[in-house]
Amino acid sequence: MQDVTNRPDFLWDERLTRDNLQKLLHGDDAEERLYYAAKILREARFEEVWDFLSPAFLADHWEKLRWRLGRKRKFWEFIYRTWHTHGLIP
Asked: What is the pTM of this model?
């Protein structure tokens, strides 16, 4: 669910719009990209994750992301392993 400011509900603690978040995720600052990607994986609903990230992004950055996932790490490890096993990601 989005509010009238176009801010994703999982960013309740930040003043970022969906457009600004997309810009950060595609920006030049690798650390910032990983920070927000991990925040999305931790806080967004599964269906909403794919509005911002792709399975390819997850695969490409997995080793740096997995340690930032907190309580959601096991969930995403299961997803990653399953996709990898079925050849959906390298």
From this structure: 0.91
Q: 70, 76, 45: which is closest to 58 by C-alpha?
A: 76
Q: Among 18, 55, 56, 58, which residue's Cα sits nearest to residue 38?
A: 58
d(CA 34, CA 3): 25
Q: Could you tell me the CA-to-CA distances from 21 to 15, 24, 53, 60, 80 in Å, in that order?
A: 10, 5, 11, 19, 23
**Is residue 8 classed exposed, middle or buried when 0-12, 13-18 and 19+ CB atoms within 10 A define those classes?**
buried
pLDDT, one tens digit per residue, over 8-18 is 999 989 999 99
CA 77 to chain centre: 13
